[in-house]
Recover the amino acids of this structure.
């Protein structure tokens, strides 16, 4: 459950902050992480900048801290960023759109989209604020569906019908076409929250993953990282493009008639991310790990980033196997590894306090 109310803050120029041109979270850019940490320590009234029609303050960014409730400004900015990532295919409303529909102010709603032909898009995102909870409706103009996503599994037929009626009125007013074949649905086979504070972050991911056709791979455990992602993308005013999917088949034919090459990962068993004394030794462990992962997942959703993770996890599996040899009596020394090999790269720490 998340609150929508934003804080009233003064627009004091002394409290404004200048952002660097681009902020990224990488292992080699600790300065960016330090900047964000320092930024969140500034007074809540410190102005971050203007994003579309929304002015963001430190108080807004603080709602992205773990266990906090995302406010309407963060939701609206992120919906806008998703839309701007593909203006030809995506249209996103703000969180006040549905409230106007409820108040039967259709004429005012039509003014909001008077310069946009929503039926020329593929997607329309409508964030929904329900008192103390966030949900989202996503319209697919290609499939003629209005889908409701709720991280608590709630259902609301009335809400879906209100949006469907709006679309029909919009179609009749602007296109004078035949509004038929449309259907509404509640989408259940998606990640769900198991707490009381992450529904806003789930809404952001439902919108992003649906419009970008990504595999549902997020959960409560990933929410701290996702909140950081939303924060940095909001500061950068740009959605980080998802990794391109690895092609299942390439045009390059191998010496075997029915074997084609699969696009490789960016890393390899010889990469410098591994200690020198075990590079090029983990091929069987990595291959075995890759076979298990690729057979248990839809290969169409394997990305280059995913392949890099497979190589890292395969290397960790190799380390585990080598360590297990220590328990075998009279095991040849060549199968044993030094204690320096026991280290596996630890994940980056969260930058949000």
């Amino acid at each position: 459950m998340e609150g929508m109310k934003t804080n009233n803050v003064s627009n004091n120029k002394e409290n404004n902050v200048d952002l660097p041109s681009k902020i990224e979270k990488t292992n080699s850019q600790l300065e960016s992480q330090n900047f964000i940490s320092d930024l969140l320590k500034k007074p809540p009234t410190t102005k971050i900048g203007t994003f579309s029609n929304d002015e963001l303050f430190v108080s807004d960014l603080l709602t992205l801290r773990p266990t906090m409730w995302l406010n309407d400004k963060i939701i609206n900015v992120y919906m806008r960023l998703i839309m701007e990532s593909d203006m030809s295919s995506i249209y996103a409303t703000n969180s006040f759109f549905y409230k106007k529909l409820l108040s039967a102010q259709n004429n005012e709603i039509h003014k909001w989209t008077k310069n946009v032909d929503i039926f020329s898009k593929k997607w329309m995102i409508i964030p929904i604020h329900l008192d103390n909870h966030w949900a989202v409706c996503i319209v697919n103009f290609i499939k003629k569906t209005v889908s409701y996503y709720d991280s608590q599994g709630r259902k609301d037929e009335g809400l879906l019908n209100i949006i469907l009626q709006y679309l029909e009125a919009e179609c009749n007013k602007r296109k004078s076409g035949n509004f038929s074949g449309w259907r509404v649905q509640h989408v259940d086979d998606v990640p769900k929250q198991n707490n009381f504070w992450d529904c806003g972050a789930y809404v952001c991911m439902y919108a992003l993953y649906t419009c970008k056709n990504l595999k549902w791979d997020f959960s409560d455990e990933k929410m701290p990282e996702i909140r950081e992602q939303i924060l940095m993308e909001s500061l950068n005013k740009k959605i980080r493009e998802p990794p391109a999917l690895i092609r299942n088949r390439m045009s390059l034919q191998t010496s075997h008639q029915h074997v084609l090459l699969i696009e490789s990962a960016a890393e390899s068993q010889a990469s410098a991310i591994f200690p020198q004394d075990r590079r090029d030794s983990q091929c069987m462990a990595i291959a075995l790990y890759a076979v298990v992962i690729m057979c248990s997942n839809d290969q169409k959703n394997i990305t280059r980033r995913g392949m890099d993770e497979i190589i890292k996890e395969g290397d960790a599996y190799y380390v585990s196997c080598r360590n297990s040899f220590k328990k075998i009596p009279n095991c040849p020394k060549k199968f044993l590894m030094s204690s320096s090999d026991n280290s596996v790269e630890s994940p980056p720490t969260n930058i949000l306090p």
Notes: Confidence is low (pLDDT under 50) at residues 5-14, 23-30, 245-252, 337-351. The first strand starts at residue 47 and ends at 51. Residues 13-236 form a domain with the Adenoviral Proteinase; Chain fold (CATH 3.40.395.10).
